[in-house]
């Protein structure tokens, strides 16, 4: 089940095992049968650590989700609450406990706080008069969760919002703690690089924690050579763009949560029929786990979507050729060998069928006119062509050139320059608000803000169309720097774009030779930084680094003598890249691509607070007060 | 923020007064845009109430765009026209709106008219 974690350069299974051990120890503390009451939010991340079977081995008999009122009845000795340290949740627990006490059934209560226990929460329980009812109050330190063989995530949804909007550094503390855990298991990381305000904080905390534990040096040969901490706000543009890798598109279209994706069932119904006839059409969405344990998926996940079709058909040919081989099998030995391969081949075939269906579903979307228009506008922003006054006529010509239908709307002339005609149309047609916010933010980021008039115009349009309650959301976007009025006429983006080669005219989507393939032309800024750091080093781009927000720095951590790694000829360096505030699948794909490059010399392990895409990211920044009906 | 509090208020009068204090705060903070937008919001709420009382339509709480849509589909062209002028809705969006609204209820006669 977890085998895929150990294949990578760094065996992340060690981390997972450590996490499971802690969990077991806690469960064994509460003797007898147990029921777990889950904070719903935690079930996803926990699924990545331990399956139900592990819990069952430790006498967990029932599981419920935490909600107000009475606890469901269960004939167990212990009730364990797994919760985040949030005050609202404490009130619910208190309600649960009080109602259970009334029923006079003798049972023991326990609380497990994830990831930290909090004095405030315990105080609240005391005020509610239930603190005494708990036998065990403990914390379960779950910071970095192994997500895949080269990917760690904290799965903390609100990290970006907390750090950049609310200036709440709790998640940075958890990050530093998580990195300390990692160092305890994999050895001290000798070099730390970073860029951005939050990165600086995390590095400071790590160094301080290190000093506090000065006595207990770990005697482990370091696995990682360096750590790179990157703030999300140095690269706001990348997550706004539509990801064009296979995995990225699955995430854009259907959303991947905790490694699972839910897909519409229609496409999968057909193939079911062949195998097990007579089954009813499934009405539930199909849930699929996506990780590198699946051979085929590992192969195609990071490809540009335009290359996926070719890869799938090649695979199909290989598989059918393998099945054909049975006709050639003459001797008993040959047949035996063929049969022994059958389960593997059948698995491969069903996985191929699944991914062909997914690819078809996504293709329907990527070939649609709306998707194409959206992409065109995005790319115009990123290349910087459609950002000045000629914008309107340009894109108008563009439409003609591409043979698109020109709807009447294009004919209306503009009063204000720089307002993008496409965005205007989208608002007028009441397209999803998040889509609008993504595009407007993108225009703002690429132009170092919008002209005051344009800025006000967009805001007015959005408020009038989607309702005045979105004022708060717009304010949030402004605070985080996604959307802002132009203050100076100087725009740094073109310089950054040119120096870091963020736009590659001839991105090769089938056989990529540069990371820009993940966005069909645009190379993610964050990844370029990592790439330049590896070679030739950040000194060469000092100018650009100064233009990006926050300080950049380099720290060294002393290693105990004798632990210095002797590098063998041709051995690659291993770098852990930590994205504070989230990372997209396309960025991960780009880093994996760099790891695989023959002359790269560096392999990357990726860690983040949360896997994001433009939609989920903007959503986390939205404020939506529940309006009472008048 | 006062704005947040105003949405919890289910009585129109109370909400309006909270929004008014939000306007004052915005003015103090020199956030002109937000102040003006909030004033507009109040104007819209008042307009919606008046129409609700006169025509018995349930408009309160809708966005301006949705209000216009509702008015057009219910054949209140005059009122829609008035809102369009009062709130200075850009032509382009208004035509889009009108087209979709009229097409949805297949009012081709009205569509012919402009």
TrEMBL record, chain A:
GO CC entries: late endosome membrane; lysosomal membrane
Domain of life: Eukaryota
A Pfam family per the record: Sec1
Principal subcellular localization: membrane
Membrane topology reported for the UniProt record: Peripheral membrane protein
Keyword Aminoacyl-tRNA synthetase: no
Keyword Lyase in record: no
UniProt entry keywords in alphabetical sequence: Protein transport, Transport
Subcellular location: Late endosome membrane; Lysosome membrane
SUPFAM superfamilies linked: Sec1/munc18-like (SM) proteins
InterPro entries according to UniProt: Sec-1-like_dom1, Sec-1-like_dom3a, Sec1-like, Sec1-like_dom2, Sec1-like_sf, VPS33_dom3b
GO biological process: protein transport; vesicle-mediated transport
Family according to the record: Belongs to the STXBP/unc-18/SEC1 family.
Stated name of the protein: VPS33A core subunit of CORVET and HOPS complexes
Species the sequence originates in: Esox lucius
Taxonomic path: Eukaryota, Metazoa, Chordata, Craniata, Vertebrata
């Amino acid at each position: 089940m977890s085998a895929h974690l150990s294949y990578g350069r760094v065996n992340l299974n060690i981390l997972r095992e450590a996490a499971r051990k802690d969990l077991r120890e806690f469960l064994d503390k509460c003797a007898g049968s147990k029921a777990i009451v889950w904070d719903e939010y935690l079930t996803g991340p926990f699924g990545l650590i331990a399956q139900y079977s592990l819990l069952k081995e430790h006498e967990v008999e029932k599981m419920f989700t935490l909600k107000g009122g009475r606890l469901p009845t269960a004939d167990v000795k212990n009730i364990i609450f797994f919760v985040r340290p949030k005050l609202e949740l404490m009130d619910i627990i208190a309600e649960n406990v009080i109602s259970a006490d009334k029923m006079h059934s003798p049972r023991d209560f326990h609380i497990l706080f994830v990831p930290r226990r909090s004095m405030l929460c315990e105080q609240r329980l005391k005020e509610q008069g239930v603190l005494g009812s708990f036998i065990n109050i403990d914390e379960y330190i779950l910071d970095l969760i192994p997500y895949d063989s080269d990917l760690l995530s904290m799965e903390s949804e609100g990290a970006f919002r907390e750090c950049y909007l609310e200036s709440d550094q709790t998640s940075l503390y958890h990050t530093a703690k998580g990195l300390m855990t990692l160092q305890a298991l994999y050895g001290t990381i000798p070099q730390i690089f970073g860029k951005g305000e939050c990165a600086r904080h995390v590095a400071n905390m790590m160094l301080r924690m290190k000093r506090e534990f000065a006595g207990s040096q770990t005697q482990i040969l370091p696995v990682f050579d360096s750590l790179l901490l990157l703030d999300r706000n140095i690269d706001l543009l990348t997550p706004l763009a539509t990801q064009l890798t296979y995995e990225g598109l699955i995430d854009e279209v259907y959303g991947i949560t905790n490694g699972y994706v839910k897909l519409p069932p229609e496409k999968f119904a057909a193939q079911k029929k062949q195998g097990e006839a007579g089954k009813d059409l499934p009405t539930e969405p199909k849930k699929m786990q996506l990780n590198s344990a699946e051979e085929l998926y590992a192969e195609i996940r990071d490809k540009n979507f335009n290359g996926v079709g070719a890869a799938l058909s090649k695979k199909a040919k290989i598989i059918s050729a393998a099945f054909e081989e049975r006709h050639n099998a003459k001797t008993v030995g040959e047949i035996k060998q063929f049969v022994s391969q059958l389960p593997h081949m059948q698995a491969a075939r069903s996985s191929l069928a699944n991914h062909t269906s997914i690819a078809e579903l996504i293709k329907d979307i990527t070939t649609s006119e709306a998707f194409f228009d959206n992409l065109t506008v995005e790319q115009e922003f990123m290349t910087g062509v459609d950002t000045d006054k000629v914008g309107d006529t340009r894109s108008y010509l563009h439409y003609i050139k591409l043979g698109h239908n020109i709807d009447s709307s294009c004919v209306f002339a503009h009063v204000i320059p720089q307002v993008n005609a496409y965005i205007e149309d989208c608002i007028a047609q009441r397209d999803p608000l998040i889509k609008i916010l993504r595009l407007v933010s993108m225009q703002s980021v690429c132009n170092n803000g919008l002209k005051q008039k344009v800025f006000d115009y967009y805001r007015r349009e959005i408020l009038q169309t989607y309702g005045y309650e979105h004022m708060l959301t717009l304010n949030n976007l402004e605070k985080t720097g996604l959307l802002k009025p132009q203050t100076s006429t100087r725009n740094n983006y073109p310089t950054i774009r040119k120096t870091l080669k963020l736009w590659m005219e001839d991105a090769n989507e089938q056989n990529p030779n540069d990371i820009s393939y993940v966005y069909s032309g645009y190379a993610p800024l964050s990844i370029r930084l990592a790439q330049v750091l590896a070679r030739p080093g950040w000194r060469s781009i000092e100018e650009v680094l100064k233009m990006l927000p926050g300080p950049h720095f380099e720290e060294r951590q002393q290693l105990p003598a004798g632990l210095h790694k002797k590098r063998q000829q041709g051995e690659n360096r291993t770098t852990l890249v930590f994205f504070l505030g989230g990372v997209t699948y396309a960025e991960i794909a780009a880093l994996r691509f760099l790891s695989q490059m023959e002359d790269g010399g560096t392999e990357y392990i990726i860690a983040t607070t949360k896997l994001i895409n433009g939609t989920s990211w903007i959503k986390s920044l939205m404020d939506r007060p529940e309006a009472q009906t008048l | 923020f006062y704005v947040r509090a105003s949405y919890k208020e289910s009585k129109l009068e109370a909400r309006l007064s909270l929004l008014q204090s939000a306007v004052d705060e915005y003015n103090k903070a020199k956030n002109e845009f937000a102040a003006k937008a909030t004033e507009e919001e109040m104007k819209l709420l008042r307009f919606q109430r008046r129409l609700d009382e006169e025509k018995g339509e349930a408009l309160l709480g809708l966005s301006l765009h949705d209000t216009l849509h509702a008015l057009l589909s219910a054949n209140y062209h005059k009122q829609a026209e008035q809102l369009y002028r009062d709130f200075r809705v850009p032509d382009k969006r208004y035509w889009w709106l009108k087209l979709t609204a009229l097409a949805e209820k297949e009012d081709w006669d009205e569509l012919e008219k402009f």
